[in-house]
Structure formats: structure tokens, C-alpha cells
Specification:
It is a single chain. β3, α4 and β4 form a beta-alpha-beta unit. With 248 residues, the protein is α/β, with parallel strands linked by helices. The chain starts with 6 loop residues before the first strand and ends with a helix. The radius of gyration is 19 Å and the shape is globular. α2 packs across α8 and α4 runs parallel beside α6.
């Protein structure tokens, strides 16, 4: 077991978070790991296929209780990125009704920020991330090409409503929000078919999509929590040149 020498930036989400270290995609997880090197450890807590119902017990396992926090690295920044699966069309087993989805997000924020919570961590800053738009043209083609072919499982407007719910919860709870939905939509010129530039299957980001994600997330950190922006944090250990000068 490694010693608790650095605080933590935890990325909690679905497959889009889990895949943020995929070789060749330059995902936001990989890029954050680079810019926070020797400043904070970036943890991948992505869960491919999960919705917020299924992820709730996992979050409780991923976070330290009050009693445990004394002995483990502190989570100084927690990003929460769900909605892509919750917004599936029923009868998909991944579907979570919109009100329940929003309620789950509220519960997660309270899990960290409520003094009544077993996992209370007032110094943990939270960023809620909206789901990105779905390119139904690209998604339908991808699903129909499979063996056996599958029906379209997501809808553009439905996912937009889930993105709006994320922003509403962030405002209500007083935490930051990265509006990836709008970032993608504007990057595509507000043209759904043009979203294919940023996704490889109509749902998951490609390298261009992850660049949009990373840029939007870093801007949120800079504006909402500048004290934990990578440019504001000192390196954990002194630079080698300082050690060299000390030995002279």
C-alpha cells in the first residue's frame, strides 16, 4: 500500500470517465494526470454501463468515512459525470427516470457535504458534469451495424433534459458544473450530424471530444476552484535542482 503523500482528484462516472485513459484518445483523465503530476493523484472511478442507481453503492465504497479520512489521501476535488446511461429510452435496464436521476445527484452531493453524513468531507470540492449530446444519426448507424442489429436506445432531446437537470442540481446545491452538453453543441455549430467530429459512435467521445471535455473542465476548475487548479498547487517534492544546490 502506498503512503498518503498526495491529495486526490477523483473522477467518478460511467464509461466516458472509465475510458478517459484509453491510449490514443487523450482523454481528460490522461491529461489531468499529466498536469497534476506531483501535485495530486488522479483516480479513475469510471463504471462502464452504470447509471446513478447502480453507482450509488460504489460511491460509498470509493469515499472514506470520517473515521477513515485520517489515514487516507484527501479527495480535494471530485468530478461526477453521469446521465448518458440514465437517459436511455425505456425499457432499457439502464434507464433512470429524470426526477430519480436528479435526486441521486442531490444525495451524492449531500453524501460529501452534509455534516450528518458518514462521509462528510467539507474540503472536497465537487464538479457536476452534464452528459454530452447524443448524435442519433451516428448512434443509430452504429447500433444497426451490430450483430444482431439493435434499435436506437437514446434520444437527443431526452439527453438534453438530463443535462439541464445536472445544471439545476449544481445551482441548487451550490457546487460547480461543467456544461459539456453545451460545449459539444456549440463546437458542432449546433448541428447534430456535425457532432460526429467529436464522437466515434454517437455517444462516446473521440480525441476531439475529449479535448472539448478537458478544456471545459479545466476552465471550470480555474473559475470555480482556482485554489486547486494545477497552476496554483506546489509540487509535492522539491525540484532536483534545489536538492543539487543544497548538496553543494
Amino acid at each position: 500500500m502506498s503512503a498518503a503523500i498526495q491529495d486526490v482528484l477523483m473522477l467518478f462516472g460511467d464509461s466516458i470517465t472509465q475510458g478517459a485513459w484509453t491510449p490514443g484518445l487523450l482523454g481528460h483523465g490522461e491529461q489531468l494526470t499529466h498536469v497534476y503530476a506531483r501535485k495530486m493523484d488522479v483516480l479513475n472511478r469510471g463504471l462502464s454501463g452504470y447509471n446513478t442507481d447502480w453507482a450509488t453503492p460504489v460511491l460509498k465504497k470509493a469515499l472514506a468515512t470520517r473515521q477513515e479520512q485520517e489515514y487516507v489521501p484527501k479527495v480535494r476535488l471530485l468530478t461526477i459525470w453521469f446521465g448518458a446511461n440514465d437517459a436511455c429510452l425505456p425499457p432499457s435496464p439502464q434507464y433512470v427516470p429524470l426526477k430519480k436521476f436528479a435526486s441521486n445527484l442531490r444525495d451524492w452531493v449531500d453524501l460529501v457535504h452534509s455534516p450528518k453524513s458518514e462521509y462528510y468531507s467539507p474540503d472536497t470540492r465537487i464538479i457536476l458534469i452534464t452528459p454530452s449530446p447524443v448524435n442519433t444519426y451516428q448512434r443509430r448507424a452504429d447500433l444497426e451495424s451490430r450483430e444482431p442489429p439493435r434499435l436506437l436506445d437514446r434520444d437527443f432531446e431526452t439527453t438534453r433534459r438530463y443535462a439541464e437537470a445536472v445544471k439545476d442540481v449544481a445551482r441548487e446545491k451550490g457546487v460547480a458544473c461543467t456544461d459539456v452538453w453545451t460545449a459539444f453543441w456549440e463546437a458542432a455549430g449546433k448541428n447534430e450530424p456535425a457532432l460526429e467530429k467529436f464522437m466515434y459512435d454517437g455517444l462516446h467521445p473521440n480525441a476531439e471530444g475529449y479535448k472539448v471535455t478537458y478544456d471545459a473542465l479545466v476552465e471550470t476548475i480555474k473559475q470555480s476552484y482556482p485554489e486547486v487548479h494545477f497552476d496554483s498547487l506546489p509540487e509535492t517534492f522539491p525540484p532536483w535542482l534545489a536538492l543539487s544546490e543544497q548538496s553543494d
